Amino acid sequence: xxxxxxxxxxxxxxxxxxxxxxxxxxxxxxxxxxxxxxxxxxxxxxxxxxxxxxxxxxxxxxxxxxxxxxxxxxxxxxxxxxxxxxxxxxxxxxxxxxxxxxxxxxxxxxxxxxx
Amino acid sequence: xxxxxxxxxxxxxxxxxxxxxxxxxxxxxxxxxxxxxxxxxxxxxxxxxxxxxxxxxxxxxxxxxxxxxxxxxxxxxxxxxxxxxxxxxxxxxxxxxxxxxxxxxxxxxxx
Lengths: 115, 111
What we know:
Chain A has strands at 4-7, 10-13, 19-25, 31-37, 43-51, 54-57, 64-66, 76-78, 87-94, 105-106, 110-114. By secondary structure, chain A is an all-beta fold. In chain A, strands 2, 4, 5, 6, 9, 10 and 11 form a seven-stranded mixed beta sheet that branches. A four-stranded antiparallel beta sheet of chain A has the order 1-3-8-7, with no helix packed on it.
């Protein structure tokens, strides 16, 4: 299994540009989520999905859109990038939504710089 | 709102010393607590997961304790090695399968 994969690894955008961060998992996981990591602030949840066709907002959803058309993929869209969105973005997944026994598996991250 | 704090933010020890990493959380209504390791430029790797009903978990040189009533967890790493140098994050799981992370402790083990 490749686990959780993310593309691209690094991206530079200009203010106002749009882009999609890709996330895929090959473990048949039901639950997928996006976090952003900023210095000294830990990881903060942006959006999450409990299954194909179902998404919900996390702690910091503004400026981001998601969709989940398949079990495997969970892309994150920035419609109009802002410098405040400069961060490292992590995608994570776990087999079930409600289990308290399972950890989440994280992708390697995408570093985004918005100028 | 759940808040998770890790102090200190950075720690440097000589090789062979035991590492003690602290994590505190404000709301004791958690499902579990997890410790993760993050290497520079990499994603997070789960080290230990402690259920809310458990007091501790052990894996090799790692031992994590949980005191839910006081809102604290401690990660012990015995006989530290340079390969243990990384950032360690704790996270608590609450209702809705949501993880709240601490800011992490950056560890340097000097040879």
